[in-house]
Design brief:
The complex is a heterodimer. Chain A is built from 17 helices and 11 strands. Chain A is α/β, with parallel strands linked by helices. Chain B is of the alpha+beta class. Chain B has one domain: Heat Shock Protein 90. Classes of the chains: A alpha/beta, B alpha+beta. Chains A and B meet through helix 11 and helix 14 of A and helix 1 and helix 2 of B.
């Protein structure tokens, strides 16, 4: 099988200064992408899916998410923010939506859209199809961390991934079309995505999806949250006079990014799984024993869907509740918006599908199968000789991973600290009994 | 390399252990996904067969660079009419087993569809041995 991989862009970085090599991120990483080398966590670029589990696990704030310079928005005459609907639900109840919207203008944007507006556009183009893939069940492409996970680990499921663009991408296409129709040059229009997680940054900056240029930059949601909060506290008086805001998303679409939000809108039998370890557990069993009559799979790397994104300041359960409440109040789009969508969306409908996703062979031991078999045998042998504590002292997440690293010449036997222990020491006996005496 | 796994009669919750383990190994050997899928289906059906119909047994997989040999052995009670067992929809499964979602009579037919070679040795009141082979390269008819 040919391995035509294009490198993934990654949005997570480890600060050598802050990292203590504590192994927490390494042990929490769902793809075993992290090793501790010379006291610092090192991330394997081929295995990392930018899910953000490491950032959640780190108590020393050693893991950060890249971000574009905010002032970049001012290099465009028209500056449009596209953000997930849950952005409105990050603020305390005494900050009305109109203040938040007005603050976006105060900060420097000239217009804004909720990314789930793309769902309304999609629905208006065709009430029949909202997902499209070579095989059923169609797997949602909404969460880029899950898409990458499938690309590196679940090759038999790659052609199940939905090929329709995600709502945020459709929103961008639509907005750009709108400005083009007004006779505004494309180079004067800057569309910026406000992201709840690292995976979306990585996705936007990996050009794998084709040449279509959709976003001019990414702004981290917590950063924008801080700017809006600052503006609200400074200009409370003036904001009280702000106009009622425009409606940019329907109630049904507004819950799309939450767990069960997307699957609720897809016809047929669908299943929703959230949190990356759950997703892995599900995919492992699904690959062995598929489920009949399943039409759609909604898989999200974060618990509670995007409400649990690492860049969302509000508690994820509270966010979910607030988003649901807001969606209930909203109902369908007004007739005028609906008319405008059906008129405009015809112009972008040929750009809605992407070509496909590639598999990346990260787990393969050797391109030559006989060599790979030999390595497999060696790994098995070494695994039985290692203590099986998965303590992480060697810098690998588990004894099995160390065995693999040894065979792939990325580590050596001497890395195992437990094997170095003086087994006759009374303390060792006290803790482990005579568990380790037999292997020496 | 060899992998051997014991199967306990009636332990449906653990049927699938062998197939997931083999799946993990084959992925690391760069075996094409569609072939892995066939191996997994054949293996999983075999596991269910042993768990549902026999007094227990074991699966032994031998993996070489050319393909995988799977030998499933149980301790009886044997298949009286192999041709009948090979026909789709025929099942001797009890009501209880069918209620659990197994015993649709697709086990052996499904195995046959997914392997390149299949041999069944069995008769009434004796152990059953099923040997299968799946090649790691695509054959012409596919």
């Amino acid at each position: 099988m040919g391995d035509i991989r294009r490198p993934f862009h990654h949005a997570l970085a480890v600060s050598e200064k802050h990292c203590r090599g504590c192994t927490r991120c390494m042990k929490n990483c769902p793809t075993e992408a992290i090793r501790i080398i010379r006291g610092t966590a090192q991330v394997n670029a081929e295995r990392c899916i930018d899910c953000g589990q490491c950032l959640d696990a780190c108590p020393y704030e050693a893991i950060s998410i890249e971000q574009d310079d905010f002032s970049r928005i001012f290099s465009f005459q028209h500056r449009i923010a596209v953000f997930p609907a849950l952005f409105f639900s990050q603020f305390s109840d005494d900050v009305p939506e109109s203040w938040i919207a007005q603050s976006l203008y105060d900060i420097g944007f000239t217009d804004y859209y909720e990314s789930e507006f793309g769902v309304d556009i999609l629905k208006s183009i065709s009430s029949r199809f909202s997902v499209y893939a070579a095989r059923k069940p169609v797997i949602s492409s909404y969460c880029p961390a899950v898409v990458r996970l499938i690309q590196i680990k679940y090759h038999s499921l790659v052609d199940h991934i939905n090929l329709l663009r995600t709502p945020m991408e459709i929103t961008s296409l639509y907005v750009r079309q709108l400005y083009q129709d007004k006779g505004i040059s494309a180079k004067d229009v800057g569309v910026f995505y406000v992201t709840p997680c690292a995976a979306k940054i990585a996705d936007i900056k990996t050009s794998e999806k084709g040449k279509n240029h959709l976003f001019d930059g990414v702004i981290n949601l917590d950063y924008l949250y801080n700017l809006v909060c600052g503006n609200v506290s400074k200009h409370k008086k003036r904001l009280q006079q702000s106009k009622p805001l425009k409606s940019t998303v329907s109630g049904n679409a507004a819950i799309w990014s939450l767990a069960k939000g997307e699957s609720a809108m897809v016809p047929g039998r669908s299943l929703a799984v959230d949190e990356i370890h759950n997703v892995i557990e599900f995919l492992e069993s699904y690959e062995t024993n598929s489920i009949e009559d399943l039409d759609f799979l909604e898989l999200r790397a974060c618990s509670q869907g995007c409400a649990g994104g690492v860049l969302t300041p509000e508690n994820k359960f509270l966010t979910s509740e607030k988003v649901m409440k807001r969606a209930k109040r909203k109902g369908p789009l007004d007739d005028e918006t609906q008319r405008r969508i059906s008129h405009e969306s015809r112009k972008i409908d040929r750009k809605l599908k992407i070509d496909g996703y590639e598999a990346h062979n990260t787990d393969v031991l050797d391109d030559d199968i006989s060599e790979a078999l030999k390595k497999m045998d060696e790994i098995e042998k070494i695994s039985t000789l290692l203590p099986g504590l998965d303590c992480g002292l060697c810098g690998s997440p588990s004894c099995e991973a160390l065995a693999r690293d040894i065979v792939l010449q990325k580590a050596s036997w001497s890395y195992c600290g437990v094997l170095h222990l003086k087994k006759s020491h009374p303390l060792i006996q006290e803790i482990w009994g005579n568990k380790f005496s037999r292997n020496s | 390399m060899d992998v051997s796994i014991e199967l306990t009669a009636g332990d449906f919750s653990r049927a699938g252990t062998a197939s997931s383990r083999i799946k993990k190994i084959l992925k690391q050997l760069n075996v094409p996904p569609d072939i892995i899928k066939r191996v997994v289906i054949a293996l999983y059906e075999s596991e269910v067969n042993v768990v549902a119909h026999s007094y227990g047994g074991n699966v032994t997989c031998t993996i070489t660079s050319e393909g995988i040999d799977i030998v499933v052995q149980d301790q009886g009670p044997g298949i009286p009419d192999i041709d009948l067992a090979m026909s789709e929809g025929y099942s001797t499964a009890s009501k209880e087993i069918r209620e659990m979602g197994f015993g649709a009579g697709m086990g052996l037919p499904n195995i046959r569809k997914n392997v390149d070679a299949l041999e069944i040795n069995s008769s009434e009141n004796s152990p059953t041995t099923i040997s299968m082979h799946v090649k790691f390269t695509h054959t012409q008819e596919e």
